[in-house]
């Protein structure tokens, strides 16, 4: 794979040793290149604009501007429409992850994840998919959105078919297309098509945003079943 085809990664973490370790790991992959390192959220936004990275590996807790606000600024910048954000957290119970997903992040990982899993996650998110681990995601979203009344219903939710609502509920539980297909007795391609149509109807950018929409609308409730 040439440099032109490599996934351009920007690292944002206030701990120099953490950034260095991640940089060494990412540079060891033949299909990736580290194009910048930021120690604050503000630097991450500035470097995202300067380097046009494909993906930002973003720590949540940083000085000057935290990872959530930095993610929000990147997602809101039309010039950075193709830049994906993968947020990192110390624990999978960090409720700030929900805010990061709302802000436009395409997924999250815990910092003690296996090196190979981090590389896989970068590939998944850079390809345009969302990284949502079923167990942690379900627990995290359910707890953070454990409200007695549904929040605002996203435009288009009332236009979803019964099948699309079933698919959305399973996406919210963290299932991938193959798993959704197995549960509903569909082909993986059909499941993928349903997910794409739902994203179009709800005007969201990826599966992470679908998860948030499903819980906030009340379609899926904390502790409930699809």
TrEMBL record:
Domain annotation Response regulatory: ranges: 8-126
Domain HTH luxR-type per the UniProt entry, residue ranges: 153-218
Modified residues (4-aspartylphosphate): 59
PANTHER family noted in UniProt: TRANSCRIPTIONAL REGULATORY PROTEIN NARL-RELATED (PTHR43214:SF24), TWO-COMPONENT RESPONSE REGULATOR (PTHR43214)
Organism: Streptomyces litchfieldiae
Membrane among keywords: no
Keywords annotated in UniProt: DNA-binding, Phosphoprotein, Transcription, Transcription regulation
Entry keyword Ion transport: no
Signal peptide: none
Protein name: Response regulator transcription factor
Top-rank lineage group of the source organism: Bacteria
SMART domains, sorted: HTH_LUXR, REC
A Pfam family this chain is assigned to: GerE
